[in-house]
Amino acid sequence: MPAAAAGALEPAGELKFGQVGLANLRVLSLEIERLAAEMRERVLRAPRLFARAPVVVDFGSLSACPDAATARTLLDALRDAGVLPVGLAFGAAAVEALAVELSLPVLARFRAQYERPPAAQAPDEAPAHPEAQVEAQVQEAHDASAPGRPPATGALQHAQPVRSGQQVYAHGRDLIVTATVGAGAEVIADGCVHVYGSLRGRALAGARGDTGARIFCRDFQAELVAIAGHYRVLEEIPAELRGRSVQVWLQGESLCLRELG
């Protein structure tokens, strides 16, 4: 068989659905310059975390969906601020029409920690993790809301290194990682997160709003830690805690860090 013919039988691309980490920007006011300034400040404060970060824009908190011209101005301002808008969050019919006009996808609605899930909501819906106005979304590789899926029991134990770009999510339970969490990697749990190797990436506990969840780490080098949506980035973490055994917990609205004695 000629090489060209053989090559024609092979696909030109391979499509897979896996875990995807995005940031959700909940627009609370159409003060575009102010919003862009806030995002620019985030990028400058934590460039490794936010620079060129993919962002889903959520208009759900506004009284009305903006028109296409206003939305384009907002998207351009966000790009100038250093982030990359990649879609709109699911909303009313007006949002879907706007997405078509802007040639952007509509992605599944993000749930903030202060929103109560409706009674009909499946218990295994993938969580969202608000970071002030920015919320980090977790999507499982399969449909987590499939009916009949049994609840998870016990802690999820992960013995392999979590490398840059990878994400491990413990749904409905604690997560125990006995290896290194590399820079650019993400470990997430609805309960507590325990890392017995170096934590150089991001750790998010209490992903579905459990304010009693904690993070425990033997070698603390984290880019970001968050509990029930309250977060700190590396630049906001005391230098004396780096490389130490650390626990992180939430006290009121404040995220607390302390060396484990």
List the helices and strands and how they pair.
Blueprint: H1 3-9, E1 22-26, H2 32-45, H3 47-50, E2 54-58, H4 68-81, E3 84-89, H5 93-102, E4 106-107, E5 128-131, E6 134-137, E7 156-158, E8 167-170, E9 175-177, E10 186-189, E11 193-199, E12 202-205, E13 215-220, E14 224-227, E15 230-233, E16 246-251, E17 254-259
Parallel strand pairs: 1-2, 2-3, 3-4, 7-9, 8-10, 9-11, 10-12, 11-13, 12-14
Antiparallel strand pairs: 1-6, 5-6, 13-16, 14-15, 16-17
Helix pairs in contact: 2-4
Descriptive account of the structure:
The chain has 261 residues and is of the alpha/beta class. Helices cover 19% and strands 30% of the residues. The chain has 5 helices and 17 strands. The strands form 3 sheets. It has a 6-stranded mixed β-sheet. Strands 7-9-11-13-16-17 form a 6-stranded mixed β-sheet, with no helix packed on it. A 5-stranded mixed β-sheet has the order 8-10-12-14-15, with no helix packed on it. Helix 2 (32-45) packs parallel to helix 4. The model is unreliable at 109-151 (pLDDT under 50).
Order of strands, main sheet, comes to 4-3-2-1-6-5
- Globally, the shape reads globular
Number of strands: 17
As a whole number of angstroms, the C-alpha radius of gyration is: 20 Å
Query: Would you tell me the structural class of the helices and strands?
Result: alpha/beta
Report the order of strands and helices.
HEHHEHEHEEEEEEEEEEEEEE
Distance between the termini: 69 Å
Our count of helices gives: 5
How much beta, percentage-wise? 25-35%
What is the subunit organization of this protein? single chain
Sequence stretches where pLDDT stays below 50 over 5 or more residues? 109-151
